[in-house]
Amino acid sequence: MTITTATATVDTSLWLRRFHPKPDAPVRLVCLPHAGGSASYYHPVSRALTGVEVLAVQYPGRQDRRAEPCIDTVHGLATRVAEQVATLADRPIALFGHSMGASVAFEVARLLEEDGIVLKHLFASGRRAPSRHRDEHIHQLGDNGLIAEMRRLNGTEGKLLDDDELIRMIIGAIRNDYKAAETYVYRPGPPLSCPITVLTGDSDPKVTVDEADSWRTHTTGPYAMKVYRGGHFYLNNHQTDILETIVDRLTSG
């Protein structure tokens, strides 16, 4: 696939949010949200990382893009995100994706490598390896069932889940993302050549440590895995260590 990067066809400001521009940073980190998530989830990461320019992906169908139709496949999202990220190739690029965002990041990395752009690093968080499939159908549940699943994973603040009007406004985007994540099918192909670091919680109901460790088969480059105490949103309680890991990986070598 050839990625279109002409300025006239790529509006990076719509997809990529720079909360704290760092024009002199030697490396850029593009962060991809989880199912139902938005770019603002990574605002604290952008604020905390000095020396790294953080760009957070804003998927259509939420926040200021709420009026736009959602994209309900991982491959569809990856194609659009890759178009944006390819415009940043004047500097080294790394990707960080959590949950569904890790699957999207992997497919983005594949598209970029097909176009001759090799990532500085890929961070895959809270997601089983692309080749490890689970038969899941949460996206087919009614609204109450979907909300119950969100509470189980503890990924959204309780106040939001208790606000019936607000949750009904965003439930469509959440269901869309669950569909994208659950219907994602890995297409066999060459492994990546970039380094991969996998981050996961030891009690995550969405991914076992073994499923996470299978990421090692998806790159010929360096591979590492870090396991933290916690569930699917373990990263909310280990932010300092995770940020130190990111900086270490991006500044070494």
UniProtKB/TrEMBL annotation:
GO biological process: one example: lipid biosynthetic process
Domain of life: Bacteria
Domain Thioesterase TesA-like as annotated: residue spans: 30-250
Cited Gene3D superfamilies: alpha/beta hydrolase
Pfam family, one: Thioesterase
Similarity-based family: Belongs to the thioesterase family.
Protein name, entry field: Surfactin synthase thioesterase subunit
Species of provenance: Micromonospora taraxaci
